[in-house]
Amino acid sequence: MTGPPAPTPCTLPLVEVRVTELDRACLPAAGAVFDRLLALDPAQVVVDLSRCRHIDAAAIGLLLEVHRRLARTAGVLTIRNPNPRIRRILHTARLDQVLPIVTDPPSSAPGTPATGQEPASAQPALVAHGRASVATSQ
């Protein structure tokens, strides 16, 4: 007699995290969000820093830890849209030699909403806003 089939693991292709503050003060909450996020076994995690005003050494350590954990499962961590000040900090810390850091061009593609928002079907399943609160979009 055989039992029910083993559940197949669920893997998300992309998880995006939008961060407004990433420093020692919010590190415990941010770390908890990243722990929950990594439990989903994503293929790629994009950390959007477009609205982040400050990043410190503790936050860089957290990003490196997330990178290491993702690399163990062949996942990729990408940093998106850091402002020039944060880009300099990441460059000084040599994070730009470890992680892809990308800047999105202004949205002008046909079919892109005028608000600059992606269509709902293109948005990731999990997005963290602000100080690491989690909301799902479906």
From TrEMBL:
SUPFAM superfamilies: SpoIIaa-like
Boundaries of every STAS domain copy: 45-99
Biased composition (Polar residues): 105-120
Region of interest: Disordered: 101-138
InterPro entries named in the record: MlaB-like_STAS, STAS_dom, STAS_dom_sf
Protein name, UniProt field: Anti-anti-sigma factor
